[in-house]
Specification:
Number of helices: 19
CATH class of the largest domain: Mainly Alpha
Strand content: under 5%
Radius of gyration: 36 Å
Oligomer: single chain
Shape: elongated
Number of strands: 0
Largest sheet: none
Helix content: over 70%
Distance between the termini: 112 Å
Order of helices and strands: HHHHHHHHHHHHHHHHHHH
C-alpha cells in the first residue's frame, strides 16, 4: 500500500529543491554578470544580467539592486569603449543605462551600490547633454529634448552647478521646435539658476538667453515680463549690444508698443545722447508722425558719423518721399504759380535725396544684391524726375546687371 504522506513529503521536498535551484541559477547569473563587468566583457555581462532580470521574482532586493547597478555599468562600459558598431547594437543605450541605475537606486535600500550609481550618473549626465547638443546643432529638436529630460534629472539630483546650461539648451530646443511657451519657461529657469550661483567665468550664452527670452515674451504680448527681462539683462550686462539691440528692435517694430516706444526712446536718448542705434530707431518711429523731427535726428547722427550708410539711405528716402508728395500735389494744382513753386520745392528735395542715397550706395561695399537693387531703383527714379540723364544711364545699367 502506497504511503501518501511520504509521497507528499517527497513531492514538497522536490519542489523546494527545484525552487532553490532556480533561485540559485538566477543569482548565479547576477554573479556571472558582475564578474563579466569586472573583466570588461560588457556584452556577456548584459546577457547574464538581462537573463537574471527576466525573472525578478526569483531575486531578492539586494540581488535586484546589484543586477541593475552592474547592468548600468555594463552599458557605460560599452559607451566608453567608443566602438560604434558595438554601441549600435543597443539603440537606446543611454536611456537603458539611466533606467538601470534608477532601478538600482529603487532596490538599493542599504545604499550598498550608492557610489556605483553616483559614478554612473556622473558619466551619463554630461553624455546626455553633449549628445542632445549635437542633435540641436542638426536641428533634431525632438530627439534632443528626449535626452535633455534625463540630463536635467541627473544634474538636479547631483546638484550640478551647470544645471542652468541644460535648461538653456532645452529652451533653445523648444524655440527651434516653435514651442515658445515652453522655451520661455526653460530659459527663465536657466537664467534664474545661473544668477543664483553664477560661475567664476562669465558665460557668454547668458546675454543671448536674455535677448531670446525678451523676444519670446514680446511675441506672446507679455510686455511686462519682456520689460523685466530686458531691464534685468541690461543691468547685468551693460556693455552687451545684443540685449539692447533686441529691445530697441521690438519697440521699434511692434505696433502695440508704438506710443510706449516713443516715450521710452526719448527718455533713453536723454540719458545716452550718442547712442546711434537708439536715435535711428526713434527717428524711424517718427517718420510717420513728425517727419521734420525725424530728419533732424538723422542729421544729428550724420554730424558725428557721416558714413552711416543706413542713416544716409533713410534720410534720402525721406527727402524723396517729401519731393514726391510736392510733385504729385503740383500736378493736381490748377494754379500755375503754385505749380511752379511746388515743382521747384520738389526738385530741391529730390536733389537732397540724390546726394544722400548716392553716398549710401557708394559706401555700401558689403550690400547684397537685394539691397543694391533697392538703392538703384530709388536712384533711377530720382534721376528720371531730375532729368539727370547721364547718371540715369549709369544707374540703369548697374540695375540691369543685377537682374
Amino acid at each position: 500500500m502506497i504511503n501518501l504522506s511520504l509521497v507528499k513529503k517527497i513531492w514538497v521536498f522536490g519542489l523546494l529543491c527545484s525552487i532553490t535551484l532556480c533561485v540559485y541559477g538566477q543569482r548565479s547569473k547576477v554573479t556571472s554578470g558582475a564578474m563579466a563587468v569586472q573583466d570588461q566583457d560588457y556584452e556577456k555581462a548584459i546577457q547574464y544580467l538581462q537573463e537574471a532580470l527576466a525573472k525578478p521574482e526569483l531575486l531578492d532586493q539586494k540581488d535586484l539592486a546589484k543586477a541593475h547597478a552592474k547592468l548600468g555599468q555594463a552599458y557605460i562600459g560599452i559607451l566608453a569603449s567608443g566602438k560604434k558598431e558595438l554601441i549600435m547594437k543597443y539603440p537606446n543605450i543611454m536611456n537603458d543605462a539611466y533606467n538601470a541605475f534608477e532601478n538600482a537606486k529603487k532596490y538599493d535600500t542599504d545604499k550598498k551600490f550608492a557610489n556605483d550609481i553616483k559614478m554612473g550618473y556622473a558619466v551619463l549626465g554630461p553624455l546626455f547633454y553633449q549628445t542632445a547638443f549635437e542633435l540641436y546643432k542638426q536641428k533634431m529638436y525632438k530627439p534632443a529634448l528626449n535626452l535633455i529630460d534625463n540630463a536635467i534629472k541627473i544634474f538636479e539630483e547631483q546638484k550640478n552647478p551647470n544645471t542652468y546650461g541644460v535648461y538653456l539648451l532645452e529652451g533653445y530646443c523648444y524655440a527651434g521646435a516653435n514651442d515658445s511657451s515652453k522655451a520661455a519657461i526653460s530659459l527663465d529657469k536657466a537664467i534664474k539658476l545661473h544668477n543664483a550661483s553664477p560661475p567664476k567665468e562669465a558665460d557668454p550664452a547668458i546675454p543671448s538667453a536674455y535677448a531670446l527670452l525678451g523676444r519670446l515674451f514680446a511675441a506672446a504680448n507679455d510686455f511686462e515680463n519682456m520689460n523685466r527681462i530686458f531691464t534685468e539683462g541690461k543691468n547685468k550686462y551693460p556693455d552687451n549690444d545684443e540685449i539692447r539691440k533686441n529691445e530697441i528692435l521690438i519697440y521699434a517694430t511692434n505696433p502695440a508698443l508704438y506710443d510706449k516706444a516713443l516715450a521710452k526712446f526719448e527718455q533713453d536718448i536723454q540719458k545716452n545722447p550718442n547712442d546711434e542705434l537708439l536715435k535711428m530707431a526713434y527717428a524711424q518711429l517718427l517718420e510717420s508722425k513728425d517727419i521734420q523731427k525725424a530728419i533732424k535726428i538723422y542729421e544729428s547722427i550724420l554730424e558725428k558719423n557721416p558714413n552711416n550708410k543706413d542713416v544716409l539711405f533713410n534720410l534720402g528716402a525721406l527727402y524723396n518721399n517729401l519731393g514726391k508728395e510736392k510733385y504729385d500735389k503740383a500736378n493736381r494744382s490748377s494754379d500755375n504759380n503754385e505749380y511752379k513753386k511746388l515743382i521747384e520745392e520738389s526738385k530741391a528735395d529730390f536733389r537732397k535725396a540724390l546726394v544722400y542715397i548716392e553716398k549710401s550706395f557708394q559706401i555700401s561695399f558689403n550690400a547684397n544684391n537685394d539691397e543694391k537693387r533697392t538703392m538703384l531703383k530709388a536712384l533711377v527714379q530720382i534721376c528720371t524726375l531730375l532729368e539727370e540723364n547721364e547718371k540715369l544711364k549709369t544707374y540703369k545699367a548697374e540695375l540691369d546687371s543685377l537682374k
